[in-house]
Amino acid sequence: MLIAFIVSIVIKTNWFSSFSCGFLAIGGLWLFMAIKIDQQTDSILTNQIASLFTINGATYLILISASIGAFAAGFAGLTGHAFIKLFEKKKSPYY
Amino acid sequence: MKFFKFFIAFAISCGLFYLLNNRLQLESVSIPPLGKFLNPYEGFWQNAESKAIDGPANISLEGLEKEVIIRYDSNLIPHIFAENEKDLYMASGYVAAYHRLWQLELVTHNAAGRLSEIIGKRTINIDREQKRIGMLWSAQKVLNEWKKNPQIMEMLNSYSNGVNSYIQSLSYKDYPIEYKILNYAPEKWEPLKSALVLKYMSKMLTIGEDDIENTNFVKKYGLELFNQIYPDFPEGIDPIIPEEKIWDFTPSFRETETDTSYVFVPIAKTISKQYPGVGSNNWAVGSTKTKSGNAYFSNDMHLNMSLPAIWFVVQYHTPEFNVYGHILPGTPMIIQGFNDSIAWGMTNAKRDIVDWYQIELKNKYRNEYLYDGTWLLTKKIVDTIKVRDAEDIIDTIVHTHHGPIVYDKNFLAENPKVNLAMRWLAHDVSYEPLCFTQLAKAHNYEDFKKAIRHFSCPPQNLAFADIKGNVAIHVQGKFPVKYPNQGKFIMDGSTSKTEWPGYISPEHNPQIFNPTRGFVSSANQHPVDSTYPYYVYSDNNEYYRNRRINTVLNEKESMVEDDLMNLQNDNYSIFAEELLPVLLDSLDKSNLSENDRNILSVLESWNYEYNPLLAAPAYFEIWSGEFYKLIWDEISRSDIPLPYPSSYQTVWLIKNEPDFEFFDIDSTEQKETINDLINLSFKETIYSISDWQEENEGEQLTRASYFHTDVMHYTRIPQFSAMDLEVGGSGDAVNANTYRHGPSERIIIEMGNPIKAWHTYPGGQSGNPGNPHYKHFLASWVNGEYFPVFYYHEPSDHEEATIFSQTLNPQ
Predict the structure, then answer these.
(1) Is B364 exposed, middle or buried (0-12, 13-18, 19+ CB in 10 A)?
(2) What burial class does residue B289 get, using C-beta atoms within 10 Å of its C-beta: 0-12 exposed, 13-18 middle, 19+ buried?
(3) B44 contacts A44? CB cut-off 8 A
(4) What is the CA radius of gyration of chain A?
(5) What is the mean pLDDT of each run of 10 residues along chain B (811 residues)?
(6) CA-to-CA distance for B259 and B475, rounded, in angstroms?
(7) CA distance B610 to B631
(8) Residues B369, B398: Cα–Cα separation, whole Å
(9) Do B50 and A42 touch (CB under 8 A)?
């Protein structure tokens, strides 16, 4: 979460990009890894944990895992954007 | 406005951060920190494995002297080749931690009364009980003595270093999944924990006595009735040591005078007792009765079946010895196994080695107690039990020279006069580690006998077979010399007269070598008959499995391994054979509905086998249970703890004393006879069956569905467990499966050239639910099948069966 926050401070852009950057980056990374592990291990643990959390199926567990990382990173990015905006000077309409 | 937006975003981020990194308590369920747990790079995802083992092929361990080679066979059994014992045990510790780290910690925390540190308030009373019965105290005591023995300490220290080497290499992502779910980190290992594992086993196997219950019974009903219902030597028993054995030694008696005096104290609830089905079978068949002329050794130990499995299989190879067998994770010794020359194994030896003494304390300060006319000082140990997410609990335990006072005004006894001190054999210092290291190196019967002299607690029936075709069995333990009836009831702790004066020397323990019948066997029954010179008493003995085993082994000649495998999986119940005809005989068959008649005919045509898919075993279990409850309604409905009469003696009384006064049901006005009870219980059985069928619509009532044998993960998480297994057997059948107890392993060894063996257990070598080998043996165990044992002499042996090699290098 910290990295997404810092990135958004350093790279100034609009709020949507700040959110999406973190959201997609972490979401993508986590989704990729979760799917990879699930495939390689024949869902051996995915099914057990999904059932333990009363989630209906390995796929949902993968999506939930990725979403958690995605939203955490997304909001961190958004916070960074909002933080940096605090210090922006208002553009004077007068010269 | 900007600030407001920032504040919202910041608040959401903080909220998410907190939620995702902390445990959430939802009523009774704790959810692990989801941010960590669901992270594919750190969390549970990292525990999923695609192969049985995928570790590094080379590992450096600090403290190793020479290289250690480990070969894993296709059953994930490690065959450890070391140049010396120190390296061997270090490797063993590393391997045990690699596969079963969480189990190592959980079992030792349980034994030490530290479960509340991990789990919270729920386990406080369990922890208090463990502390009071002296689990941690006696483990510390024995370790202090072991510190004077360099051989034991080298073994335990090396093992500990091996475990710690593994633990030190871990970060969160490598933790076993249970740590992630419960959200805590592994702790450093130490030799004390190995001592705790041995105490844990002692507790599992020896706390089944009924001294308090016996005392309650005698106070209420008198000694004569007590002796009729709970005789020391019921008629018709088949003890471990056969009749031919002559006791040709002079015993060192203290007194032959019997003493049945007791001290009554009101106790409403007792400490937790071992499950009565905990026991085992073993037998060794000598060269005269086998086809090959080789001796065969069999053992199946009945314990609480759990996942990870209670046993871990391993082979140790050094220049001095080459031994294969079962270890208890947390200890390095092979408890049951074989080497190039001998095989050994055990069943629980029943003997009352827990006695209770009522202590007379001087006053409420509890600093002094009465003993032979003087006041001795007590020793108070103040125990702190740390509780997760709550305050520490302080418990003061008052120790006397007899042992710790377990029942007092603060624990299980409301009356402040009640102070019961526990005299438990497991409190004594003993040297079991030496026994097992010597057995690993033993070449013959003489070596075996020398080794087992160190074996004190829990007492076991140790069977033996060697490559020369010899067999033997020793009822081995450090048994106290008792006068007749000593220890049956609560005793007066203020006099030395009731104490244990000494112990039976190992040469005088029941034993036999190459009996004429050509085999030895044991199944937790009476060790001897009443001709044995010392007083022998146990609160509960086994009466059925042993007779079945002896019948089969007596009958068969030219045996091969299939005969022994069939016997280990034998579902025949002598209890059913002896009771059912009596029930059927007295049943009033007029006025039965068609449904009742169907059930009856199933029972009438039954062959007494508890096969998984038969309905008759379930019907009989229900009927015999209802019948037992009616006969012994005084006991099952009592509000004070009373001892449960054995099925065996119950059947004997029904057949020989049909007018026994207990058969009447207390709560009814009329006087019932056995016939009445049989008919009443049959009616109850019909109701129970139809209740079951209503609750389980669509399912068939069979042995399997009625007992629903489960093998549960320690946390009881169903997804990590194996539930509703389609197994057969009953507590009284050789295949002793009940609800959660049963054969925790089965092994058959042919002591030939080469040595051959077959085994299985309900679980797998890996303790990780995310590993394909977690339940590797389970299916075959359920079906009564076995895996061949790969016994290596060189690392290059059994190439086709070796799936992975690992070398541990000195740093």
Answers:
(1) exposed
(2) buried
(3) no
(4) 18
(5) 77 83 78 90 93 91 96 97 97 97 96 95 95 97 97 97 96 95 95 97 90 95 95 95 92 79 92 84 97 97 94 97 97 97 96 96 95 97 94 96 96 92 97 97 97 96 97 97 94 95 93 97 95 92 96 97 97 97 93 92 96 96 95 91 95 92 78 90 95 92 93 94 94 93 96 96 96 96 96 95 96 86
(6) 26
(7) 24
(8) 10
(9) yes
What is the torsional sign of CA B238, B244, B245, B248?
A: positive
| Amino acid type, B154 | E
In a 3-state reduction of DSSP, which class is residue B454? Answer: coil
Are A33 and B47 within 8 A, CB to CB? no
CA distances (Å), B332 to each of B87, B124, B300, B315, in order?
12, 30, 20, 11
Which residues does B811 contact at the CB level (< 8 Å), separation at least 6? B60, B61, B62, B63, B64
Q: In terms of Cα–Cα distance, which of B806, B773, B791, B756 is closest to B75?
A: B773
CA dist., res. B748 & res. B752, Å (int): 12
Residue B421's H or E segment, with its range, is strand B420-424
The whole-angstrom separation of Cα B632 and Cα B82 is: 58
Q: Hey, what are B398's tokens?
A: 């008052």
Task: Tell me, letter by letter, the H, E, C secondary structure of B483-518.
Answer: CCCCCCCCEECCCHHHCCCCECCHHHCCEEECCCCC
Q: Is A75 touching B (CB cutoff 8 A)?
A: yes
Query: Which tokens in the block code for residue B552?
Result: 């089969």
**B49:A44 CB<8 A:** yes
pTM, two decimal places: 0.94
Q: Are strands B756-760 and B741-751 parallel, antiparallel or unpaired?
A: antiparallel
Is A16 an interface residue toward B (CB < 8 Å)? Answer: no
CA atoms within 13 A on the CB side of B148: 7
Distance CA B527, CA B530 (A): 10
